[in-house]
Each structure stands twice: as structure tokens, then as C-alpha cells.
Amino acid sequence: MSLANGRHYLAIPGPSVIPDPVLQAMHRPAPNIYTGELVELTHGLIPDLKTIAGTEGNVALYITNGHGLWEASLTNMISRGDKVLVCVTGNFGHGWADVARRLGADVEVLDFGKQAPVDPARLEEALKADTDHKIKAVLTVHVDTATSVRNDVAAMRKAIDAAGHPAVFGVDCIASLGCDRFEMDAWGADVMIAASQKGLMTPPGMGFVWFSEKARAVGMGNDMRTPYWDWETRANPVHLYEYFDGTPPTHHLYGLRQAVDMILEEGLENVWSRHSILARAYWAAVEHWGQGGNLKFNIAEPEYRSHAVTTLSLGDGDGTRLRSWLTEHLGITLGISLGFGDIGSSESDGYFRIGHMGHINAHMVLGIIGAMETAFTALDIPHKEGGSVAAAKLLAASV
Asked: Is the N or the C terminus of the chain less surrounded, counting Cβ atoms within 10 Å?
């Protein structure tokens, strides 16, 4: 018998849970796109999006997903043939590197594996070796959604500065913005990208590129800019259509306005703290369960784990068994493995991910934890009983 009837819980690392007020804001007829409410709403989003990113720089809005943002950022940052250094800590760093390569860049990859963050010392060493400053951009992912590693962006900036290197510094915050602390200007990022469907709690379809005046000046002279991806017009529009090089994503804008209001009303510090506490509740349960079985964190050190997603290993295909049982019997979907062997392989089936980003609270987290403990029991997956209690104690001590 299935107990999955009722509202399904999609606990994957994006698209995240969409708040009811966001859905309600989007449920309306098509608006006038030339004058009136939508025009003022879009103009009003710009300073608030800068606040969430922690920047006084520029922001360009796109109708796209994260893969499109990789292309948007690169076509504005570099020229064909330019050298790009990509610091990779999982699946999505390789993705950004591949897009750069296919656009005609000369790509060098510093690969730190799937279980560790970027080592700033290695970055500094690589940049010091580039005495002719052929490297025009350094790219990294703040949180890799596949591995759940969280990189120290501020430390990377210090490494770039210590090397005395002029490269533009670009950071992918698609999985982290609105979940993990990120301060673009204070941490020294020149370009930052994020999309609507994770911490910003809005359906997939919109993307954002924030960029500094340094990045803007560098981009003015490159030869890869195209009419659609060019961030210059989008960051300085006269008319609404210029934000999007055409018809705006009308209903996404209404939803985003509501989501941004919710973030700012809660307060960024509170948003970051909430994500930190709820992530640690999951970690407390996992640490307890793992004492009696094969459940392991992909990222061993807590200081390097994302507060938005946790990647776990059970081995022997049990990750997929767990996910399938939860979906069929309890109405919960956890994230699939990404980047750990071919999809469908025994290695891949041993991993799974829990998304805990955006519109989540304590009872939602405790529900997932209780459901996972139920699945462990039903499937005879070895574990130490009491993970739910461990999580409850952590939350009780945090209130």
C-alpha cells in the first residue's frame, strides 16, 4: 500500500519548493508589457537583486537556465582564444569549462576532485606561473550541486591578489544564492551568476549575471559578445523589452517579486542562519545513522559542506532503492546522483542528494528525516536507529 497521496515533496536541489504566495502572484492574466505595473515592478527588482547578491555593481536579467548563464557570462568576459582557468570541484565546474571550450576559449582545469574544496594555494601557484597574464578569467562554482562542496570564494580572491594577477574572477552561485552566505563585493567576485529556481524560490526560466565595473570594462573590448547575451543593454535599459532582448517573462517577474520580498522581509542574515541550522539537522541525523551502516557524507568536513544540498553515499545501489521507495510509498523525491559514475551504474546508484534550499522549515526537514528512517527500516538498510532524535535535539537547542 502507498501512503504517497497528498502534496508531494520534491526535496531535490532545484527546482526548489515554490511558496504558495509566489504561485498566487503568478496566477493572473497576461499584463501590459509596455506601461504600468510590470514596468515599475521590474525596475524595482534591480536594487533588491543587488542587495541579495551583496553588490553595488550591475545586474543583467535573462530568460534562461544555468547553462545559458554560463554562456552569457563567458561571452561578455572573454574573447575567442583567451585562456580561462577553471577551478573544478565536481560536475558543474566541468560544465562551465566545457561551455568555455566550445565557445573557443583555451581552457585550463585545476581539478580538486569530488570530495574537497578548491585549495587557494594551488590557485595562487597556477596564477604566479602565468607570468605573461595569458589567463583572462578564473572561474569557480561556489556550491557544486552534484558534490555539495562549498568553496571559500573570499580565500580564492586573496590567492588571486597574492599572485598579483589581473584575471576577472567569476563565480557560479546557482545552487547557493539565498541559501549559503555570499557577499559579492566584500569577497571580491567580479562576475556572479544565479538562476531563479533554487534559493530564489521561483520556477525555472530566469537567470541573472551580476558584474563589476572591472568586468564591464574588460568585456567592452572582447569579440565574443552577441546581441542576445550582451549584458550592456540589459544592465542599462531604457524600455522594458531591453532587459530581455524582447518580450519579458511576465509571470516569472511577478513570482520573483514576491519571492524577493519574502527573502528581504525575513532578512538575509536570518535566511542564511535558517539554512545553516536546518542543514545541520540533516547532518546530525546522518552522522547518527552512519554509525550503524554504510551511510556517508560525500564531503567529510562540515565547514566545506553546502547549506543548500547534501550529497550522501549508501553503496551497493541502496541510494536508488531508497529514493524509489520514498517516492512510491511516502510521496517524497530525493535528488539523483550526478557525476558519480554513469547514470544507472552501481556506483551512481549508491549516491543520492537531499535538497534543503529556499522555502523550507523545521517540520519539513523533520518530515524528510523521519521518512528516510522509515525507508531504512522497510528496506533493511543497516543504520543506527535514532537519527530523528539526534536531529530533533539539534533543532531544540537552536531555537
From this structure: N
Nearest to 149 by CA among 11, 310, 278: 310
pLDDT value, residue 1: 80
- What is the CATH class of 31-265? alpha beta
- pLDDT score, position 342: 83
Q: Which residue, among 385, 194, 392, has the nearest Cα to 292 in the 3D structure?
A: 385
pLDDT tens-place string over residues 365-379: 999 999 999 999 999
User: In CATH, what number does 9-16+267-398 get?
Assistant: 3.90.1150.10
Q: Which of 29, 25, 45, 75 is nearest to 240 (CA)?
A: 45
pLDDT of residue 345: 87
Q: Where are the domains of the chain?
A: 9-16+267-398, 31-265
Best CA proximity match to 85, nearest among 151, 177, 8, 165: 165
CA 126, CA 131: separation in Å to the nearest integer? 10
